[in-house]
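hiii, so i know i said id send this last week but things got crazy w the move. better late than never?? heres the sequnce for the chain we talked about at the cafe, plus the structure i predicted for it. fair warning i was half asleep when i ran it
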Amino acid sequence: MILVFVGKSSGKTTNAVNVSVALAQRPASRRSQRKRVVRLLDADPQGSASEWAAQRTDPPVIEVRPYVQPTIHKDLPELLAGVDDLVIDAPAGTGRPLPIPDGRIRITRSAILAALCDDHGVVVVPVTPSPWDLWAGEDLMAVIEEAWTHDGAAPGARSRAVVLLNRADLTRRGGEGKPDRVPRIVRAARARLETAPLPLLNTVIHDRMDYVQAPVFGLSVTEYAPHSAAAAEVVALTTELLKLAGEIK
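okay and structure toks below
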């Protein structure tokens, strides 16, 4: 699977790291005990994924490779060599509303093209419930549509660019004997994203401290707090993405 995380949201790298490790903790197939081999491509000039790896003292379970190049889609044979999954942490933004260097835009386009020209590629756009972030996420559509209409676009590519609701407020207790209720901003975000040009994933990543604390030690949440609600969210997200990519049923 080729999996690209792209967008303005600060959850881009966090989700790329957590899903990469969760993939590496899974068997390669139902009939194999071998774990999946995962390479996380740090294509963001900020180098946040590489910084995460540098904090680690435990033996690595994934390979983190810096690759700030606008030729990812052309270099796929090399980048996929020896791995089951290639996860790409792409640069933030696409040029609006705040200009960013054109080199970053080219890297982002290359990463999206790499995923959507592959039969098992998925592009994930994490967005927070903030109206500003939801609006900024829509700007990616021009780049994604370029990949959809590319000569090399894989069948089903239009269904494999998706939105992830990220850093959502936690549900609040409705009172004794009453069900939890979802904060209004999360309900509003879901309603707006249901009509967005990209489908919304079922899994929601909530604003939990484990997501903040785990990177301090160079760990993913499934390593740092394997029995936590955050770990359960990441496992659910990973499973949903594998199904979307056609890797599992």
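btw The first helix runs from residue 11 to 24. thought thatd interest u
miss u guys!!
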